[in-house]
Write a structure and sequence with these properties.
Pfam families: zf-RING_2. Keywords: Metal-binding, Zinc, Zinc-finger. It comes from Clohesyomyces aquaticus. GO terms for molecular function: zinc ion binding. The chain is an alpha+beta fold. It has 1 helix and 4 strands. The radius of gyration is 11 Å and the shape is globular.
């Protein structure tokens, strides 16, 4: 289940397959639907560069790198 929209995720859904946060100190194992986490990270709102669960920074503003697996 996606922690953003609370909808189910499945490998058969091309837009909402499970994506795990990876290689970010302090934020491990949080899983979101791909379409939800991409929308979250690109919406331009305050805190949109952070994990929706723990608020750890996921996008390095200087490198523009996303830490998704």
């Amino acid at each position: 289940m996606c922690c953003i929209c609370w909808d189910t995720m499945g490998h058969s859904d091309q837009d909402h397959f499970p994506v795990e946060i990876a290689n970010v100190e302090g934020c491990r194992g949080h899983v979101f639907g791909m379409k939800c986490i991409v929308e979250w990270l690109t919406n331009g709102r305050p805190m949109s560069n952070t994990c929706p669960m723990c608020r750890t920074q996921l996008i390095d503003a200087h490198e523009d790198t996303m830490f998704l697996n």
